[in-house]
From TrEMBL:
Predominant cellular place of this UniProt entry's protein: nucleus
Domain Homeobox: residue ranges: 2-25
Protein name as it appears in the record: Dfd/Hox4 protein
Any one GO molecular function term: RNA polymerase II cis-regulatory region sequence-specific DNA binding
Gene Ontology cellular component list: nucleus
Protein localization: Nucleus
Keywords: DNA-binding, Homeobox, Nucleus
Pfam family name, one: Homeodomain
Organism for this UniProt entry: Diclidophora luscae
Top-level lineage group: Eukaryota
Gene3D superfamilies: Homeodomain-like
GO BP terms, alphabetized: anterior/posterior pattern specification
Length: 25
């Protein structure tokens, strides 16, 4: 079970990574 805060931070990191990936492609 993940904490909402941890999930929220990780979600932002994942979103940032996805944005970088889309930019590269």
């Amino acid at each position: 079970h993940f904490n909402k805060y941890l999930t929220r931070k990780r979600r932002l990191e994942i979103a940032h990574t996805l944005t970088l990936s889309e930019r590269q492609i």
